[in-house]
Amino acid sequence: MYFKSKCCKSQVMIALVSIFSCVNTYASDTNSEEIHNLLSGNSIKIINRFAESIMYFESDDSFKSFAKQGLLSGGKWRVTRDSMCGTTLPQPYNPPREFCLYLKGRKLGESWSESSETHGEIKRTILKGHPKL
């Protein structure tokens, strides 16, 4: 980069330091670490009007989803500041579509319900380990 004055150089440096400070603050966010620790090696049981299923979360950021009839899907998961976001693989979309579940403040053993037009009432429970349905 070519700068005409020292003033511009210092403004660019301040801007870069600000950007990296924000990135480092986000990366060390304790909420994301808590969510990763909550899910890694554990499961979420999901019950809606169509079926009952369970998602098993591995520490390598992969997941598998099972219903009583067997494997439904698998994929990768990641954590944001307040949510777990998963991508079922393979899928026909480019880029792949992701689903997210708000988990900030949730605890092992906790259950909660939400409502969806498509699935009706959805009950979720965070379970220890990888229990069977």
The number of helical segments is: 2
Number of strands: 8
Distance between the termini: 60 Å
- Beta-strand residue fraction: 35-45%
SSE pattern, N- to C-terminal: HHEEEEEEEE
The CATH architecture name reads Beta Barrel
The gross shape turns out to be globular
Number of domains: 1
Helix content: 10-25%
Kindly report the CATH topology.
Lipocalin
Contiguous uncertain segments of 5+ residues: 1-28
Structural class: alpha+beta
> What is the CATH top level name?
Mainly Beta
Description:
By secondary structure, this protein is α+β, with helices and mostly antiparallel strands. It has one domain: Lipocalin (Beta Barrel). The chain contains 2 helices and 8 strands, in the order H-H-E-E-E-E-E-E-E-E. The protein has helices at 6-27, 30-39; strands at 43-47, 52-57, 62-67, 70-79, 83-89, 99-102, 111-116, 120-127. The chain has an 8-stranded antiparallel beta sheet. The longest helix has 22 residues, at 6-27. Residues 1-28 have low confidence and may be disordered.
List the helices and strands and how they pair.
Elements (H helix, E strand, L loop, with lengths): L5 H22 L2 H10 L3 E5 L4 E6 L4 E6 L2 E10 L3 E7 L9 E4 L8 E6 L3 E8 L6
Antiparallel strand pairs: 1-2, 1-8, 2-3, 3-4, 4-5, 5-6, 7-8
Task: Give the gist of this structure.
This protein has 133 residues and is α+β, with helices and mostly antiparallel strands. 24% of the residues lie in helices and 39% in strands.
